[in-house]
Amino acid sequence: MGLIPHSSTFLLPNLPTTDNGPALTYALIILNQRLPRFTPLLWKHAQVHICADGGANRVFDELPGFFPHEDPSDIRMRYKPYAIKGDMDSIRTEVLEYYRGLGTKIIDESQDQDTTDLHKCVAYIRDLLNLEHPNLCILVTGALGGRFDHEMGNINVICRFPSMRIILLSDDCLIQLLPSTHHHKIHIHSSVEGPHCGLIPIGMVAGRTTTTGLQWNLDNTEMRFGGLVSTSNIVKENIVTVQSDSDLLWTISIKKE
């Protein structure tokens, strides 16, 4: 069974020239929730920037507030999304026309009501880059918080694309899928994340999970809803390892500046 390394270097001011494992190509998806304080940093690290429907309102309205001493129009031109994709039920008309005028691709998927806007954007990035490879990492802001059904829908998306590295972010934490097809080695950047963390079975019983590097490690432990779930755990080492017979969600807190 192969090993996948994980590292939250996208939360660091500068991406290291050499990291644990191959260098990643980042894509950023912005959903329609308040932008995290580190959004400009994620934007800088990403190669492509996609707004999901009303996420464009957030970029238009909120990004200038990160740069209070600069002209808002300059900020809006600097942070122009590559594309806006979704069913277009949330984006304001004036925002849509503004970005259309800047050359942003507008992709109306209102005919598709069977998938979420996040699903549409992930599929678009996959097709745009023409591959599902281990070096692509999709960062998603606005995926956590707000309506619970939206949050569950976003978690469902990362389960529907298990071979893709997708990280859901809020001001407080991140969530990503650890597929059972691999063992996982998580490099902890204690300056920006932790110490609170969790491993959560999703959709089925996790019969046997083993970890190292946590305050309360698991040793071939069963986890299930209605039984044990490893929430409110604590990172104790710089490296956490996880192996399980079921897909798990990994979550870790993000430190306030």
From TrEMBL:
Pathway per its UniProt entry is: Cofactor biosynthesis; thiamine diphosphate biosynthesis; thiamine diphosphate from thiamine: step 1/1
- Enumerate the spans annotated as Thiamin pyrophosphokinase thiamin-binding domain: 184-248
Write down the Pfam families for this protein, in alphabetical order. TPK_B1_binding, TPK_catalytic
What is one process in the GO biological process aspect for this record?
thiamine metabolic process
> Where can this protein be found?
Cytoplasm, Cytosol
Q: What is its EC number?
A: 2.7.6.2
GO terms for MF: ATP binding; kinase activity; thiamine binding; thiamine diphosphokinase activity
Q: Which reactions does this protein catalyse?
A: thiamine + ATP = thiamine diphosphate + AMP + H(+)
Which SMART domains would you find in this protein's record?
TPK_B1_binding
One Gene Ontology term, aspect cellular component: cytosol
Q: Which of UniProt's keywords are assigned here?
A: ATP-binding, Cytoplasm, Kinase, Nucleotide-binding, Transferase
**What is the similarity comment for this entry?**
Belongs to the thiamine pyrophosphokinase family.
Q: What does this protein do?
A: Catalyzes the phosphorylation of thiamine to thiamine pyrophosphate (TPP). TPP is an active cofactor for enzymes involved in glycolysis and energy production. Plant leaves require high levels of TPP for photosynthesis and carbohydrate metabolism.
NCBIfam families of this UniProt entry?
A: thi_PPkinase
Q: What is this protein called?
A: Thiamine pyrophosphokinase
Instruction: Look up and give the organism this protein is from.
Output: Anisodus tanguticus
